[in-house]
Amino acid sequence: MSAIDADTAAPVLKASDYKSDVKPVWCPGCGDFSVLSAITKALAELGIPPHEAVVASGIGCSSRIPAYTTVYGFHSVHGRALPVASGIKLARPELTVLAAGGDGDGFSIGGNHFIHACRRNVDMTYIVMDNAVYGMTKGQASPTTEPDWTASKLTPDGPGISAFQPLEMALSAGAQFIARGFTANPNTLAHLICQAIRHPGFSLVQVLSPCITYRPEQRAYKNRVHQHFGHPEPATDRREAFARLMDDDGFSLGVLYKGSQPVYQPAPAPSATPEEVAAQFAIC
Ligand code: SF4
């Protein structure tokens, strides 16, 4: 049972308050465990009660994450985490809305939604567990796979096409908070997710989340990551952010960009009653 805050009489929330009884079916050592831990730590740190938060996801290993939390969840269809999350936020603006999933889900079948979610700038946070592979369907190349990755039987000579660049795409399309994290330290990742949730508008956190089953070489990410995109403070100017990305090797961690474009506000609700709206669509 949670302790009680002496000043507010509200329960003091802990990360464990956000973890459901459902045991994750991820492979032991999968990076997604760390992301789950970071999300629960972030929500606890921000003091957001479970009934005031939602996680929407698509399909894939990482998209199972809503079931592993105690917040509201919507495990939707492939590539559709962002439209679902947008709809939830517009209908229930008081909720803290997260969308979560993998690189295949978000940047391939969901790529169109990703671009338009960035430009629409609804206030929500998109956490992409990027392992550059389709893990759930046994290791095909994904949009972020390197062109010379030859371990998949489906692409024995490598995909041969340039990898999708999520941060460049997000910056081009209008995302207002763009960051990259790594799964090695859930506390550091939780801090990044806290910043993303606090920032008004559409926030992207790309998390380098190793798939130890189909990309075991990703264990070496810990030797490649480095901090800050070369700068201790995030860029607030898009040109500066693009310049930093031109020097990015894909392993810079931290907040790349913080913008200040207005958050999307839905049009006022129509004044017609539900009965009047129904009458307009009635078949004569
Ligand atoms: Fe994680 Fe890869 Fe296993 Fe999927 S297949 S649970 S991404 S380690």
UniProtKB/TrEMBL annotation:
GO terms for biological process: cellular respiration; small molecule metabolic process. One of its GO terms (molecular function) is oxidoreductase activity, acting on the aldehyde or oxo group of donors, iron-sulfur protein as acceptor. InterPro entries: 2-oxoacid:Fd_oxidoreductase, OFOB, THDP-binding, TPP_enzyme_TPP-bd. Keywords: Oxidoreductase. Its cofactor is [4Fe-4S] cluster. Residues 59-207 form the Thiamine pyrophosphate enzyme TPP-binding domain. It holds the Pfam family TPP_enzyme_C. PANTHER family: 2-OXOGLUTARATE OXIDOREDUCTASE SUBUNIT KORB, 2-OXOGLUTARATE OXIDOREDUCTASE SUBUNIT KORB-RELATED. NCBIfam families: PorB_KorB. This is 2-oxoglutarate ferredoxin oxidoreductase subunit beta. It comes from Roseospirillum parvum.
